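Journal club prep — side note

Before the paper discussion, L.F. wants everyone to see what a predicted structure for a comparable chain looks like in token form. Sequence:
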Amino acid sequence: MTNAASAVAAEDRGDDQSPLILSGATISSAGDWLALLKPRVVGLVVFTGLVGLLVAPGHLHPVLAFTAVLCIAVAAGAAGAINMWYDRDIDAHMRRTARRPIPAGRVAPSEALGFGVALAVGSVLLMWLVTNTLAAAILALSIAFYVFVYTMWLKRRTPQNIVIGGAAGAFPPLIGWAAVTGSIGMLPVLMFLIVFLWTPPHFWSLSLWAHADYQRVGVPMLPVVAGARSTRRHILAYTFVLVSVTLLPWALHLTGAIYGLSATVLGLGFIAGAWRVLRDKQDSRGVSQTGDLPARKLFKFSLYYLAVLFAALAVDRLVG
């Protein structure tokens, strides 16, 4: 997971070179089709689904378990491909997305859409065949939520886009649990809430130092609409709520000391990082005088935070 988390940070971080938009169609490669699935971005999402499957009571044949996790990965990638198709107009003008296959002209938009839809439908059908109806239904809901609710409705209309839209990335633990049990319990609901509440401070940290991109294309991320100072306060507030919720599985005796200690230590680290973001020296407009270095560090830390937290949950449940 360390490599996956680092890769996510690398993609979201972008680079300092000017975007290069290719003119005319070029021949697409296998790497371009793979890039449409955002493989470096979905790694953490898939891992949370795997943990949901591992901590669920009951047993699922290893082949079926592998297939279920594969379905989660393919579905997440399919949603990413459809997102790239829909956002191709703004991706072409953002430094960190301009080289993606569609705006760079290496994959035709219609082909990308067909690719994404085919994988989405196939992943849901396969999940239904190898596990159960509930797992397939939640998987379908996660795709629909990301595509229709977040990408097409919220992203360009409200600064609450990532708050509400964050639910799309929080479904995998529910899917993994349902694949084994055919039902939903308290622990997977809390896992859903953890990912849901983790998403805003994670992405707001990114948007603090990438706000120029969002402002250029008119995406109303919180720093663009409410300013950097307000965003920093929101990050700290959501972090406190997140850390409180991460302790609930331990407080409700759903997990043991391994998870409880891990959640406490990781939570204190997240709060400390959010506090440094808030206290970062700013000018009268709330713009950081240090290039939002604390925000960059918090963004990277948040990736490791979620991965280690869920890994601790899996170890705790399996050992306990």
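L.F.'s comment for the group: The chain has two domains: 29-183, 185-320. Keep this in mind when we get to the figures.
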